């Protein structure tokens, strides 16, 4: 079985046996047509090639599940075509199934058919599942139109605060110095520094702005009030998104994405909010490729994935494999 999680910044691939034993892994660059830049099928092909290098015959692959953001709705046809090109280039004859990143992220955290996924990484969304089917989702509209509380949302908000601090509209923040170092900006005046930061920001893909989020978390922990308000707002938006999918009482909750799987201020507030709402600790889902492989096992056998197989694929029932 093959499982692929095509993210905005990283594409991961897992090759596994039906019993859940992982026999190969591959990693490549981002494969999100809206925010990664580059050619989607090239990233998929690179991740597949790296993972399949560990097995002698690609005709042994019975089925593969490839999941990605932007693979639903209007983007379904384009992503399917890109995945098929990569599949053929890798020399695989088995069946190919394309799904959303929502499904693979949820499957990476639990084998239970009912529950809620709350994701905040490059993007952000909540999704409620029932009987293994996605019943309702909220947000996940991309960096320009939504993804409230995501790493990119945090990064963009912090950049706006930095520019406001430089031109006098906002209060001073340590993020000015942090972002200047990150983008290697040196300038004599506030105006020239602001223009240099603008140029550096537009020179990178939108997904790359999510790399600023850890700086914001660190500044918030150190007591920077501007960074603190941004992190508090991110946590508030994420909990509101969770509430909007109308989760049932005591719902199983899977957390995904770098913002929620870190130990920073956003994750801390969100986890406390979820515990208060559901009475149970959320489960982390670190490896979407393993989740995709679990979906592949279920689709190939036509039966629910046994807990022992899910555990073997993802690392453990509560602490899935590497991200």
Automatic annotation (TrEMBL):
Organism, as annotated: Actinoplanes regularis
Q: What is this protein called?
A: BadF-type ATPase
User: Which stretches make up the ATPase BadF/BadG/BcrA/BcrD type domain?
Assistant: 2-296
Q: What is the lineage of its organism?
A: Bacteria, Bacillati, Actinomycetota, Actinomycetes, Micromonosporales
Highest taxon of source = Bacteria
Entry-linked Gene3D superfamilies: 3.30.420.40
Q: According to the UniProt entry, where is the signal peptide?
A: none
């Amino acid at each position: 079985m093959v499982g692929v999680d095509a993210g905005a910044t990283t594409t991961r691939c897992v090759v596994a046996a039906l019993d859940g034993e992982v026999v190969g892994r591959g990693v490549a660059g981002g494969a999100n047509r809206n925010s990664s830049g580059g050619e989607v099928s090239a990233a998929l092909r690179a991740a597949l090639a790296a993972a399949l290098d560990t097995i002698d015959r690609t005709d042994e692959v019975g089925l593969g599940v490839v999941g990605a953001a932007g693979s639903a709705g209007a983007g379904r046809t384009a992503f399917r075509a890109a995945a098929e090109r990569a599949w053929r280039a890798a020399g695989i004859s088995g069946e190919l199934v394309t799904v959303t990143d929502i499904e693979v992220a949820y499957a990476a955290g639990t084998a239970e058919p009912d529950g809620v996924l709350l994701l905040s990484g490059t993007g952000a969304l909540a999704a409620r599942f029932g009987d293994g089917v996605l019943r309702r989702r909220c947000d996940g509209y991309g960096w320009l139109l939504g993804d409230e509380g995501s790493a990119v949302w945090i990064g963009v908000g912090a950049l706006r605060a930095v520019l406001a601090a430089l031109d006098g509209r906002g209060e001073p923040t340590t993020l000015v110095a942090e972002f200047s170092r990150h983008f290697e900006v040196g300038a004599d005046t506030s105006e020239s520094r602001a223009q240099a930061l603008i140029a550096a920001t537009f020179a990178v893909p939108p997904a790359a702005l999510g790399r600023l989020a850890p700086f914001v978390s660190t500044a918030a922990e150190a007591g920077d009030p501007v960074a603190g308000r941004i992190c508090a707002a991110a946590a508030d938006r994420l909990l509101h998104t969770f509430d909007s999918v109308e989760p049932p009482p005591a719902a199983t909750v899977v957390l995904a994405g770098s913002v929620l799987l870190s130990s920073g201020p956003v994750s801390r507030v969100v986890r406390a909010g979820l515990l208060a709402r559901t009475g149970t600790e959320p489960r982390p889902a670190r490896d979407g490729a393993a989740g995709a492989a679990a979906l592949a096992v279920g689709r190939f056998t036509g039966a629910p994935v046994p807990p022992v197989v899910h555990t073997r694929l993802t690392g453990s029932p509560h602490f899935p494999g590497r991200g």
